[in-house]
Amino acid sequence: MPDSGTIRAGVVGLGWAGQQHMAAFHEAEGVELVAIAGKEDDVRAELSAQYDVEAGYADWEELVARGDLDVISVAVPTFLHAPISVAALRAGAHVLCEKPIARTAAEGMAMVEAARESGRILEVTFNHRRRGDIEAIRAAVVDGTIGRPYHARAMWLRRSGIPALGSWFTNAEMSGGGPLVDLGVHVLDWTLHLMGEPRVTAVSAVTHAELGPRGLGGSGGVKHGTGSAYEVEDLATVLLRLEGGGSIVLETSWASHRATPDEFGITLYGTDGGADLSVIDYAPAGELTIFTGDGEERLDTPVTALPGRGHSAVVDTFLEHVRDPASWREHDGTIGLSRAKLVDAAYASAAAGRELPLDENLDITGGAA
Question: 122 has which bridge partners?
Answer without folding.
Answer: 95, 332
